[in-house]
Specification:
With 76 residues, the chain is an all-alpha fold. The protein has one domain: Irregular (Cytochrome C Oxidase, Chain J), CATH 4.10.91.10. The chain is 70% helix and 0% strand. Pathway: Energy metabolism; oxidative phosphorylation. It is a single-pass membrane protein. Pfam families: COX7a. This is Cytochrome c oxidase subunit 7A1, mitochondrial.
Length: 76
């Protein structure tokens, strides 16, 4: 049994079914519409950006809180 021919056939049928979306994405992200690149993808990108920023700010606040707690002298 020729395994390489079988794999080559399976790979070629898979690639024929997939459409190249890169040119569509290039048009979307290179369009001069005044939006920053991190929100050009639409509502999903805006929600992901806000979620990421919220987690980042909350994590920074949490770290600063524990650093402040660690700097305080211990009571006896």
């Amino acid at each position: 049994v020729n395994h390489s021919k079988c794999l080559q056939h399976a790979f070629s049928t898979t690639t024929k079914q997939m459409k190249n979306k890169v040119p569509d994405h290039q048009k979307l992200f290179q369009a001069d519409n005044g939006l920053p690149v991190h929100i050009k993808g639409g509502t999903t990108d805006v929600l992901l950006y806000r979620l990421t920023m919220s987690i980042t700010l909350a994590g920074t606040g949490y770290c600063l809180f524990w650093i402040l707690c660690a700097c305080q002298p211990k009571g006896k």
